[in-house]
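Internal ticket - ligand job 382, flavin-adenine dinucleotide:
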Amino acid sequence: MTNIPHVVILGGGFGGLSSANELRNTLSSSQVKITVIDKKDWFMVGFAKLWIINGTRTFENSIGSLNELSKKEINFIKEEILEINFQNKNIKTKSQNITFDFLIISTGVVLAPQKIPGLVENGFNLYDHDQLLKIRDKLESIESGKIAISIMGMPYKCPPAPFEASLLIDSMLRKRGVRDSVQIDFYSPAPITLPAAGPEVSKKILELVNSEKITFHNSCKIKSVESKKLIFENSEADFDILLAIPPHIAPKIIYDSGLAKEPGFIPIDRDCKTPFENIFAIGDVTVLAVGEKMAVPKAGIFAEGEGITVAKNIISIIQLKEETVLFDGKGGCFIESGKDTASILEVDMFTNSKPSTSLSESTTDNLSKKKEFEKERLSKWL
Ligand SMILES: Cc1cc2nc3c(=O)[nH]c(=O)nc-3n(C[C@H](O)[C@H](O)[C@H](O)COP(=O)(O)OP(=O)(O)OC[C@H]3O[C@@H](n4cnc5c(N)ncnc54)[C@H](O)[C@@H]3O)c2cc1C
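stdout (structure tokens):
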């Protein structure tokens, strides 16, 4: 190790920013050097994308600048990461070679619409920040017809988000007075709405969307998309506007590194270690199994918790302490109703023998908490 240990963090999203801040809040710049690398220089809380779609937000008002990190003596490099070299403890970007003592991999997922034939040409990617304004324009101009929301691969990030999107779109159409002439259909490959949250919560989500006349179609495994038509393994469906949640894969650098096999993610345990010493992986790019059939869902709140866990463990190593903490698997996700209220889906992955989940009432107070959640992340991290 060099005199001042160097922690390099790949990705300035939920996981990267929580770990960088936890490290810096505990250790000064004479105790640890921290570098965050990201190809883009802004951070946005994922759910703000839906507010851009429904017109209550602009992109500019929803982002924080990663350049602000320098004020906390956290280096920020805006470049694409090209290679991770475990042996030489080195990260290669286009113009730099950066050596590290500790590495935190938090690169998130890559959205892969090209994996579904015809999707790029015929549908929108609901999660792509570049398509939000086009989606909004389409939704603002539809007078009648069919909107399809289709989940095209599992796992995908923030499992309740597409349901929330359907409710916000319902609300947009109601405000424009065209809801009665626009059908909203929701297609999922899963048998129930939120398999990770269990049957009881899934039933409540189903009731919630059904109460707004949004039809949930289960077990619809996508094969391809044609002009105005979804082709599933066992059926077909028409649409006028398609909002897809495309398959998620890991970035190429992760497959090239051998840490994960395509199309999967980096397997970790609750200590977020990889097989390499002092190299950790957190957030959406990982898979943390819970029992035999489940995994921690891909969500910012879990990436954040894992980031704090890893930072604490790196601090222990630097301070020559023995303690190791494990990620607690606890988190909550907001589900906005489209009626100026939100409910909170609370999740506890590990305390009991199986994950426990609960869905609160939809209230205005919870919607305020959601707005506060975003404000707090942007102000404390950047
Ligand atoms: C519509 C929507 C709503 C959501 N709502 C919620 C919610 O209510 N609650 C919640 O907890 N989560 C929510 N999420 C999910 C949440 O945004 C993600 O789970 C979270 O961002 C994952 O954090 P991460 O650090 O693993 O990855 P990310 O936040 O995706 O960060 C990864 C970063 O790595 C960078 N990167 C990747 N590869 C490279 C490379 N080769 N070179 C340079 N940089 C690279 C990327 O640019 C990115 O900035 C939502 C997501 C969406 C899309």
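Auto-summary: The chain has two domains: 6-109+250-324, 113-247. The first strand starts at residue 6 and ends at 10.
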